[in-house]
Amino acid sequence: MAQETTSTKQCLTCHGTGMTATDYGPLACTDCFGDGKALGLGARLEWRLRAIEGAHRGARGEVGADIVWLVHELRATREALVRILARCQDADESDDAARDVRHLANEALGLYETK
């Protein structure tokens, strides 16, 4: 199976230049951090999780604690899927169950494009 990482694609925000125009002049693209390449799903997700955590840090009541718990659970689940995917990639190609689990885990993680 041919696999390609999603991070080789051009950033759609800056069109691969790494810069975006603002009222204050050109700045590094906030979506690719000036790299010009689209971030993979894992990197985009992690940056979004950090933004959510930052926005709710110090929130009163149960909201802050709920956000911390939810982000922890999501990270733990993704880490488990990465481990499952790694185990399935080591399995023999004739193992149908491993192949199916590998595709399902990759679909959830978005690490590789399938052709």
Task: Describe the protein's architecture and organization.
- The chain is an alpha+beta fold and 115 residues long.
- Helices cover 51% and strands 12% of the residues.
- It folds into two domains: 39 residues, no CATH class; 70 residues, no CATH class.
- Helix 1 packs antiparallel against helix 2.
- The N terminus is likely disordered.
* Count of all domains: 2
Distance between the termini: 8 Å
Number of alpha- plus pi-helical segments: 3
Radius of gyration: 18 Å
Secondary structure: helix percent: 40-55%
Multimer state: single chain
Order of helices and strands: EEEHHHE
- What proportion of the residues form beta strands (DSSP E)? 5-15%
Topology:
Blueprint: E1 3-5, E2 19-22, E3 25-28, H1 41-56, H2 62-90, H3 96-109, E4 112-114
Helix pairs in contact: 1-2, 2-3
Question: Key features?
Answer:
about 120 residues, alpha+beta, 3 helices, 4 strands, about 50% helix, about 10% strand, flat
Concise overview:
51% of the residues lie in helices and 12% in strands. With 115 residues, it is of the alpha+beta class. It folds into two domains: 1-39, no CATH class; 40-109, no CATH class.
